[in-house]
Amino acid sequence: MRIGVGITLVTIGAIIAFAVRDTSDSLNLQALGIIIMLAGAAGIWLSYRLANPRNRDEATMLKPNVEKQYSVAPHDKVAETTIDVTPTHLREDHN
Q1: Which Pfam families does the annotation name (predicted)?
Q2: Which domain holds residue 30?
Q3: Is residue 50 assigned to a domain?
Q4: 45-55 as b/e, with b when 16 or more CB fall inside 10 Å?
C-alpha cells in the first residue's frame, strides 16, 4: 500500500465517520469510518517503514562476493609492445 492509498483511506473514513448521517440499526457508520481511517493510518505507517529502514548501514553494505566481483585489481600481464600515443602529425615517420 502506498502513501496515497493510505491518505485516501483516511479521507474516505473521515467522510463516512463525520459527514454521513444515517440511522441504520444494522450498520454503525461512525465505527466503520473510524476503522477505515485506522486502516489508512496503518497503511501510511507501513509504507513509511518499508521506504525508510532503520538499519541503513546493513542496507548499503555490499556482500563480500559482490564486492569481490567489482574490484579493480591490476592485471598480472603487462603489454609486451609499447603503444605510440603521439599524434600522427607530430610523428617523425609521418610524410
Answers
A1: DUF6458 (PF20059)
A2: 3-69
A3: yes
A4: eebeeeeeeee
